[in-house]
Amino acid sequence: MRLINRKGILFLLLASLLLVVACSSNSSKDEDESTNENEESDEEITTGGILNIAMDAPPPTLDQPISTAAAARDASRLIFESLVTTDLEYNPVPMLAEKIETEDNQTYTFHLRQGVKFHNGKEMTAEDVVASMNRWMEKSTITGNIFTGATWTAKDDHTVVLELEVASALALDTLASSKQGAAIMPREIIESAPVEGVDEYIGTGPFKFVEWKQDQYIHYEKYEDYQPVDLETNGLSGKREALVDEIYIHIVTDPSTRVTGLQTGEYDIAYGIPYDNYDQIQNDANLETILEPGANNLLGLNNVEGPASDLKMRQVINTALDMDAIMMAAYPNKDFYWLDSGYMDVNIKNWASTAGSEYYNQNDPEKAKQMLEEMGYDGEEFRIMATRDYGQLYNLAVVIQEQLKQIGMNATLELYDWPTMLELRDSDTSAWDAFITASTTVSTPPQLLALSPTWGGGVNDDSVGEAIRAIETAPTIEEAQKLWDDLQLYAWEELLPVIPLGGNSTLYAHHEKVKGITNNTGLIFWNVYISE
What we know:
Blueprint: E1 2-5, E2 8-11, H1 28-33, E3 50-55, H2 70-76, E4 84-86, E5 92-94, E6 97-102, E7 107-112, H3 126-139, E8 151-156, E9 159-163, H4 171-175, H5 187-191, E10 207-213, E11 217-222, E12 246-251, H6 255-264, E13 269-270, H7 278-282, E14 287-301, H8 311-320, H9 323-330, E15 337-338, H10 365-375, E16 381-386, H11 391-406, E17 410-415, H12 418-427, E18 434-440, H13 462-472, H14 477-495, E19 498-511, E20 514-515, E21 518-519, E22 523-524, E23 529-530
């Protein structure tokens, strides 16, 4: 039996049964030694006050399971919590569950924490969890094959049983994902929710929802009856405290307004600081910056039709590209980007892989020219979709176009606004040959859009789907990791559905009086206080 509790992850070795499964890397020793980035000194903590945050885009909703938007993720996790969350290394850790038991990675028993109250004063019970998890399986796009046909049952008021159709070592990792989080809500809120999403935001988190004035601000206040976990904070896991009385997330889409508001003290924290303002903020004694790993930049290729549907052409392009020059054009400081051949975020320790790295950043235009000649390339147009809506993505496209022109390709840029580009990407493969995008962090490989047959000129290879299913149903995390290494190598050697360009950091800034701020797939606003 595997037992996971809030004191760490323990293995019970039974005489006839030994399974080393999903959370094996998260030992109690690891937890004891873990520390948060941006860890503060031992100065006295000041409580109270109002925290004003300038967010660069409005969240489409605060209903966690139905949105993949980063703004929705950050704005909603003040309110909602899940059975399982993640530590700094993205290992799953119990949150609203006291402990989790499994003998076979197919039947999971969740023992719930008792005395946890929703913001409406009702105590959380197994019925609320079952209703929430059934809705998450229905609404979320990240559940994949793992939760197909799965059932959730309330064994008693504080015990819930999950039955999977097929055993999976990835079940807890998926449950813990910040993307389309498995938020626990009162059963009656779910039962009365309209199709488009819940209209009452009631969770168990350290802050409760007060008001949403569309396109202006979202207002929260401290939840006085919040029950924190009595463990050291580690990423999204451990102790959460509301140290300020109120939080306002202001929707401020203009970057210069965010920067100016930060400098004048109108805002305490600001999202989406332009890279050009980095030195200015660094030189301001009242301001501090945070660089958080933000996304993996990709050159998407049309695997369905056109010149890029030929693997040889995709290999030509990959051979030609100079990744350092490409990334530097978009992120003009080596503090802002890194080169990485992995499909998964390098910070996801269980899944970061170097398989196929020898094919990355070849930067060999002469060889690429020779390969083009051997193909008999006759100057066919190669259309790269790009947008000016995101300056970094546009800059990536410009340099890639130039590098392809230098090897003799007739590469052109097709410029669209961002929504139109996404629509064309997913609905009309005849309109383009490549596109530039950036994918945000996911917790497991099956969640990668880059390997989906339904995503932008998608993967035209049935063996990829079979490999994904094998990863999802692997009996141990170690076996799943090996299968993922094999699949990533196959993607580089035999497929090249996309070309990973490199990772970049997102730039945030805050006033120096704001203390305790940390980041883990977005900024975290509990445990944050304003010093006097």
